[in-house]
Design brief:
Elements (H helix, E strand, L loop, with lengths): L15 E6 L8 E9 L11 E4 L4 E7 L3
Antiparallel strand pairs: 1-2, 1-4, 2-3, 3-4
């Protein structure tokens, strides 16, 4: 499992990411979207940095989509 989503320095608005929504934490189902806001203030979080996507969904980053 990648840890790049655990570091705030790796995430910025406009980046395409996969997140786990609160309702999907049990299943681990990922949702893809574009980062609008970073909601975690600390530089590292063990479960992933919390973000708000452009469509308004909120979750923790599990992976960053590289093009």
């Amino acid at each position: 499992m990648t840890t790049e989503g655990n570091y705030r320095k790796n995430i910025e608005p406009g980046l395409e990411v996969e997140i786990v929504l609160k309702k999907d934490q049990r299943t681990g189902m990922l949702t893809r979207g574009i980062v609008k806001d970073l909601l975690t203030n600390s530089s590292v979080h063990p479960h992933g940095i919390k973000v708000r996507l452009a469509d308004g969904q909120v979750g923790r980053v599990k992976s960053i989509i590289r093009k």
